[in-house]
Task: structure prediction
Amino acid sequence: MLDRERLGNASFRGASRSRKGFFRKALLAASIFALALPFWALSEKPTPAKPAEDLPPGAMQAKATTACLACHEARIIVQQRLSKAAWTKEVDKMAKWGAAVDANDRDALIDYLSTNFGPDRPAYEPPRTAVEKSGSERGAAKTSSKLKKQSATDPVSTHLTDSTAALPYAMSPN
Amino acid sequence: MNSRRDFLKQMSGAALAIGARSPVMAWADPLLQEQGIEIPGEDRMIVRSFRFVDLETPVEYFNIWLTPVNHFFVRNHMHEPGELSADDWRLTVSGEVEKQFTLTLAEVSRLETHTVVNTLECAGNGRSLHRPQVPGIQWGKGAVSTARFSGPRLRDVLQRAGVKASGKHVMFRGLDEVPGKVPPFIRSIPIEKALDSDTLIATHMNGAPLTRHHGFPARALVPGWIGAASCKWLTEIKILESEFVGNFMSPGYRFPNQPVTPGDAVKPEDAHVLTGLNVKSVISGPSDGGTLKSGRVVVHGAAWAGEADVVKVEISTDGGATWTPAKLGHEQAHYAWRLWSYEWKAKGGDYTILTRATDSQGRTQPDAPVWNPSGYLYNAVDQVKVHVG
Result:
């Protein structure tokens, strides 16, 4: 994702630097851009973020899925970056709280989790919720304009265009 | 099974947003590169967990004093109640009281209403920033938001029940659906805080009835305290002689009495129950990692201090060598954050912008976080790195 972004930006920057041969460069940039994009980005329906994550492949994937995902989704696991000692505590706590972990599988499950989600792994990048649909957006806009009427809430306008605003120290809390 | 039913319900309620924007536009805006997960009533929130629902407010939304409900962070310890009917909901008040009783929502809504603007923050906010990392929801900086909460005072309800002299703590139980053998989410607060005139049985948020994610039809609102004190989907209030004994009082939500080294075991008796929030400021803009044009740059954000008042927010653009006060926003309320801003004349170069708040109790944000095994109360000096071109 990041690579694609960098490549795309670099291409456009390259194209804008020189007016000479602009169209040729633009065409080249567009081709690189198109090649760099996976097919879904050009289709009408981009791949949506998955509501629930999956656990990574491995010998314990199926058993971990059964044991852990009955109560919560994989994202709660996938975002952790823990040592083996910390994973051991978590697995034992969850087994006590009802996770179906066979005693024979405990050590393998701890290994699976600490191998995949150890402290040295890069941070998990969480998705966002969707932009709220128009109906709700109208509601939100209404709420926020109402709030603005009640009290100026934009920090920039509140703080920087109001010349009567005293220094914070001079303002007594009320 | 509750969890499975809830799962299916959430899945069916989570149709995915597709085709709303052109693919090229989606590519141009990093936030829209991947279509978001649709959760009704939530707008561009960071999904820490979908099942159960834990949503973080992006710091760029810390630019408005009252957080709109669709941008207000959501913290659930377990599954939200499957069935919520305003007609069937009941609130019981029992324990160390002269007269126990049960209220309907209609009865609650007839009680005198009080309003409190409160900054609600999860005790685990900032957990992902601790090193070494600790288990739990890996919150960034946004498990905090501010709203105008209203509803009857808890005190009025307790006085109607007549608290006996033996009643020292007030227990809240919510309707959270408990998966497996997980201990139920029950906590208590001391009677003094329960009788405070600002502690509410909140039914409204920013003037509208609570939404499901925020505890419809009623929640406790314990202002200035960690979010976990403000039990959602409140259904039972019980007056106890002593602090409630349960996982979410101990070992959960406890903070070591003495500094600890990672790896040290902390006994519950060497830790205390978390109550009020500490002092903290967070930068809302410019964004971390951003590139800015030289000239006038407005650095802005929010600062809060639980039961204390923020008295000062300072900014450093030279790595902490010198600090300059930011201007505090006009809008203020005892338990609410203050917005702040600072006009910076930026020259070309790479900068780390730092911010630190000081409160009316004389507390100041520390340079380094205070590490603890559950990653609570992260409040180190905040920072963003920017490039000025």
Summary: Residues 134-150 of chain A form the longest helix (17 residues). Chain A touches chain B through 71 residues (CB under 8 Å). Residues 1-20, 33-44, 135-174 of chain A have pLDDT under 50 and may be disordered.
